[in-house]
Amino acid sequence: MLTRNKPFANRFAPHRLVKLRRRYLFTRRERLRLRYVTGGTLSVFVALTVMVGLPSPSLALKWVAPIESPSALSGLPSLRADLAPLSPDGAEDQVVLLDSHTASRIQTQLSEGMRNAAAALKKPEEPKFKEIQVGPGDTIAGVLQNAGLSGNDAYYAVKALSEYFDPRTVKSGQTIGLHFERNSHDALAFSKMVMKLTPVKEVHITKNGETDFSSDLEEKELVQRSHGRYAPIQTSLYGSAAQAGIPQQVIAELIRIYSWNIDFQRDIRPGDSLKVLYNTYETEDGEFAQYGDIVYASLTVGGREVPIFRFEMNDGRVDYFEPGGHSIRKTLMKTPIDGARMSSGFGMRKHPVLGYNKMHKGIDFAAPTGTPIYAAGDGTVEFAGRNGGFGNYVRIRHNNKLKTAYAHMHKIKNGVSVGKRVEQGQIIGYVGTTGRSTGPHLHYEVLANGTQVNPRSVKLPTGEQLAGNDLSRFKAVVGAVENQYATLTEGLKFASHGDADKESENPIQ
Question: For labelling alongside 343, which of 31, 264, 379, 489 has CA 20 to 30 A away?
Answer without folding.
Answer: 379
